[in-house]
Amino acid sequence: MHHPVAFYLVCLILVVVIPAFLFSIVVLKRTNEAQERIFESLLRTSTGAVNRAVEREISGMFSTLNFLSTSESLREPDYAGLYRQASKALEGTDIYFLVIDETMRQLLNTRVPYGTPLGAASEPSSAGQALARGERMVSDLFFGKTAQQWVFNVYLPMRLHNGRHVLLTLTKNAEALRRAVNPDILSPGWNAAVLDTQGTVIVSTDETQKTGKPFFLKVVPSLRLGVSKMREGGVNYQVVTEFSSLAGWRMIAWAKSADVQAPAVSSFLWLTIGGAVFAALAAVSAFGIARVLSRDVRLLATDARRLGHGERIAMRRYAISELETVSRALSEAADARVKSENEVRFLMREVAHRSKNQLTVIQAMLNQSAAGAENALDFAETFRKRVAGLARSTDLMIANATQGVNLMELAKNQLKPFTPDDAARVRIRGPAVLLDPQASQTLGMALHELSTNATKYGALANETGNVSLTWATSGEDLNLIWRESRATIDKAAIAESRKGFGSVVLERMLGMALDAKLDFIVHDDGIEWRVTIPLARLREDHAHDGNGAK
Q1: How far, in Å, CA of 215 to CA of 198, rounded?
Q2: In Å, what is the CA distance from 243 to each residue of 99, 213, 239, 402, 439?
Q3: What is the CA radius of gyration of the chain?
């Protein structure tokens, strides 16, 4: 069943107005879900940033321990020298260096002057675990006896030359990590904290969560990584948790669920009002839009029919940009159709022209092969080889129709069937020169005939002869030299070969088709052809006007 545009616009208004309230609820729900995903992403980013900042601090401490572990003073051991080296390395930082032995006694502590009597380690539990495991680790938060404040340690076990095991330790005040928990990266209403493996607060943006006190939410022992909901003291909270694999600590961000959901309530009210306003505006505008659409669609239909008849179409201006885009596309399609038809006609003429040229070449090969053949088999073999050479040139021409045929590739292609087992006997050298299809066919046949003659009478007829094909550009010309050496000279055969198709190709076709100048020289050890061709004749297909017309 078909209806005008106005009918469908009215139906659209009814669909919007009737379920407006339900629509608002759906939008609100989706908005709330999107908001939660955005919050989740932001909070994951925030807790991830805290995690990376804490891990950078700890990684830096481990790097410092690795450096101090290479100290010569430690290997002797010279604790006085080690004290001086560590104090200098840690100067200006809030980190201190300790050495703890297997009995948990401090051998060195840069918090106090060297020589000050030292007691047992303040946290023997984690220190003992590090020595037992023989691997680096990070302690939980503890109250340092020497520092008289909350600190944490990083340990690096090491065995000295005397066989004793010691624990290289860096200790840092928990308060120094406060810069890693930056409240500026959190959304309003959210707080963040760093907890150790026991759930003890190390640092927090919430002043009520004191360092050294258990975190008020029960996130330990369960990891609860990612986003979760928790209830504590009758209040619902949303929590995002990250875990540091380096320290074993947790980075927590939390907020009251009521604070997080407050924007959704406001969004519901605004969406309801917006839905009502939208429905009213849609009802007023529907008929006006329908009239504009109907008129413009009729114009587009007229242009489409003209396109089908092959007429050119001028682009129209429409009030609706999408319809103007369609009009532009119709106009461009009409122009493209006319252009394509012209290109097809040109290509048909070009195919006919090149087919005639190739038929002329084949006819000349047929006549010369028949004139020089001693019998039918000789004629068939000679003609087959010449056609194969022409086919190889044609393959290169087709494969490189747009760029032109490379002379080096053409030469290798034509000489390959005649190259002896010792490939070093055939040398081809020259710069890159591009040929048009006609020039590549002519030069391809010339190289084929030169190779044939060399195989029959010249340098490739024995086991020692060499063939050198070289070319170079000089000004506006291409200078090409075919030189055979170490060949057995048979002047009668050479004279006879100059009457054959090879000489016809070289002297007539190269001369007539490419305006080439040829010199033939007979040396004591082989023949030489010197050919000079204007470079402009090698790329005539690319010297035409932009439409390809000759």
Answers
A1: 9
A2: 29, 19, 13, 60, 73
A3: 45
- Sign of the Cα pseudo-torsion (133, 137, 139, 145, in order): positive
Cβ contact 206:181 at 8 Å: no
pLDDT score, position 438: 79
Size of the chain in residues: 550
Instruction: State pLDDT tens for residues 450-473.
Output: 888 888 888 888 899 999 999 999
CB atoms within 10 A of CB 304: 13
3-state secondary structure (DSSP) of residue 334: helix
Tell me how far apart the alpha carbons of residues 432 and 450 are, in angstroms, rounded to a whole number: 21
List CB contacts of 547: < 8 A, sequence separation 6 or more: 346
Rounded distance, CA 433 to CA 202, Å? 75
pLDDT tens column, 52-62:
888 898 999 99
Going by C-alpha positions, the residue among 206, 210, 204, 211 that lies closest to residue 140 is 211
Dihedral angle computed from the Cα positions of residues 128, 132, 133 and 138, in that order, rounded to the nearest 10 degrees: 10
Tokens of 32: 């709330």
Residue 217: HSE in the Cβ half-sphere, 13 Å Cα cutoff: 28
Residues 6+ apart with CB under 8 A from 117: none
Asked whether the beta carbons of 156 and 173 are under 8 A apart, the reply is: no
Distance CA 465, CA 526 (A): 9
What is the C-alpha to C-alpha distance for residues 451 and 414, in angstroms, rounded to an integer?
Answer: 8
The letter for the amino acid at 371 is A
* Residue 220 φ/ψ, nearest 5 degrees: -120, 135
Instruction: Indicate the DSSP class of residue 543.
Output: S
* Strand-strand pairing, 106-109 and 137-138: unpaired
Domains assigned to the chain: 1-290 (3.30.450.20), 350-542 (3.30.565.10)
Residue-wise DSSP of 120-141: B-S-HHHHHHHHHHTS-EE---
Q: How many CB atoms lie within 10 A of CB 517?
A: 14
Q: How far is residue 522's CA from residue 498's CA, in Å, rounded to a whole number?
A: 12
Question: Three-state SS for 330?
Answer: helix
Which tokens in the block code for residue 164? 């004793």
The token duo for 519 is 């010199």
Q: Binning pLDDT at 50, 70 and 90, where does residue 389 land?
A: low
Q: CB of 363 within 8 A of CB of 407?
A: no
